[in-house]
Design a protein that fits this description.
The chain is mainly α. The protein contains 2 helices and no strands.
Length: 165
């Protein structure tokens, strides 16, 4: 053989050591493949467990979201009802304010009239009447009549006694 040239290989001779090394390598590759499959199964089980947990969490969040939506709908209806009640109360308050103003105006007008007129003691309460005995009420007229009668009787008796008549 000339230098720099390689011999032709027509036949491969495998020695028992090479064959055993090849079988050992093949077993290692096979074990590696089996381990990868087992890891994938374990990972698949872990993934399935995670997926189940995520599914349960999402279902719980969905229930919570549905509950919150129901509460929100109730609160919106309650808000509308309270706004209606508030509007009604505002109207009632305005009506009461107007009524109070009207009554105040009537009282002020009555006070102004009573300040400009003579008091009507006949319609007044007993506590508001003056202590005068000569007022022009029915009881006062009787007292006045009695007084006039007594004075007249006294004058007649005095006149007869002193003979002025």
């Amino acid at each position: 053989m000339a230098e720099g040239t390689q011999p032709e290989i027509n036949e491969v001779t495998v020695t028992p050591e090479v064959y055993e090394a090849y079988l050992g390598l093949l077993q290692e590759v096979e074990l590696h493949y089996i381990n990868q499959c087992l890891n994938m199964q374990e990972n698949s089980g872990e993934t399935q467990r995670r997926l189940r947990m995520d599914d349960q969490r999402l279902k719980k969040e969905l229930r919570t979201q549905e509950e919150l939506t129901a509460q929100n709908n109730y609160l919106q209806k309650e808000l509308i009802r309270l706004q209606d009640v508030t509007a009604t109360q505002r109207k009632d308050t305005e009506n009461l304010r107007t009524a109070v103003e009207d009554l105040t105006n009537q009282v002020n007008a009555q006070k102004a009239r009573s300040n400009n007129e003579e008091p009507n003691w006949e319609s007044a309460d007993e506590q508001q009447r003056p202590e005068c005995w000569w007022t022009w009420s029915p009881g006062g007229l009787m007292k006045f009549g009695l007084c006039v009668g007594v004075v007249t009787l006294g004058a007649v008796l005095l006149a007869k006694t002193f003979k002025f008549m």
